[in-house]
Amino acid sequence: MTHVYGVRPLQVGRHYEIDYVHSYGEVSDFFLGLKDHKLMATRCERCGATWLPPRRDCGRCGGKTVWFEAPQEGRVHTFSVLHFAAEAFLADLPFVLAYVELPGIDTVFLTRIKGCKPEEVYIGMPVRARFRRLVDWTPNDVWFEPV
């Protein structure tokens, strides 16, 4: 059934369902690592730059990268408390999205902070990775909590 929500401009709503097959391609090892409770990053063979989230090719020099296991403890670089989110996350509001710095990684990693109240999160807070026991094969299979 189609519902009309407005006419100028015309806005309609209808049920839509689809099965979707998604390939993680060259970054599959990152998601496979989450299943084994590992954070897998990449390192450029040419310039040594490290990437998490991983990249197949170096964003600095274009060189090929190799996989390595990243540390699981780091610090909050910056964060936001979200009071609005996509439908799948509404029940979790408010929650914290943060960029986490990990030793030996040149980039910051976007993740959720759990295990504390949003008002307890601060820049520089020590955190460690936690992993979903039964993976869903999404970035939500990993999050960070205070040490």
Explain what you see:
The structure is a single chain. With 147 residues, the protein is mainly beta. It has one domain (23-146). Helices cover 5% and strands 39% of the residues. It contains 1 helix and 10 strands, in the order E-E-H-E-E-E-E-E-E-E-E. The chain has a 5-stranded antiparallel sheet, with no helix packed on it. A 3-stranded antiparallel sheet has the order 4-3-5.
The strands making up the biggest β-sheet line up spatially as 8-7-6-9-10
Report the structural category: mainly beta
Helix content: under 10%
Number of helices: 1
Uncertain stretches:
none
Secondary structure elements and pairings:
Elements: E1 2-7, E2 10-14, H1 28-35, E3 40-44, E4 50-51, E5 65-69, E6 73-82, E7 95-101, E8 108-113, E9 126-131, E10 142-146
Antiparallel strand pairs: 1-2, 3-4, 3-5, 6-7, 6-9, 7-8, 9-10
Structure characteristics:
10 strands, 1 helix, five-stranded antiparallel beta sheet, single chain, 147 residues, three-stranded antiparallel beta sheet, mainly beta
Short synopsis of the structure:
This protein is 5% helix and 39% strand.
